[in-house]
Design goal:
By secondary structure, the protein is mainly alpha-helical.
């Protein structure tokens, strides 16, 4: 509980300090620069996330297509095996 009190007190102190720094024109410039850097950082992280997401989506689509192709080939092979078994059974019973 004591740690929570210190956290809240530090948070409030930070807001008060930021408010006082923002009143000074030089402090306002510093805070604007910090805000611009944070915005640039978050934009870069967002772009990297979207690029990685697109890459993963492409890989997933390729895997899905390959799995569909393998399933189709397996169905064809099974169908051919059943047809061959029927033909063999028909020859044996004749």
């Amino acid at each position: 509980m004591k740690s929570m009190m210190w956290f809240v007190l530090g948070l409030a102190g930070g807001f008060v300090a930021a408010h006082l720094v923002n009143k000074d024109p030089r402090g306002h410039e510093v805070l604007a620069d910090v805000d611009a850097r944070i915005t640039e950082f978050t934009d870069r992280i967002g772009e990297a996330y979207r690029a990685q997401e697109a890459k993963i989506d492409g890989i997933a689509a390729d895997v899905k297509d390959a799995a569909a192709g393998a399933l189709g080939a397996a169905k064809d092979a099974a169908s051919d095996a059943v047809d061959a078994a029927k033909a063999t059974a028909a020859t044996i019973t004749d």
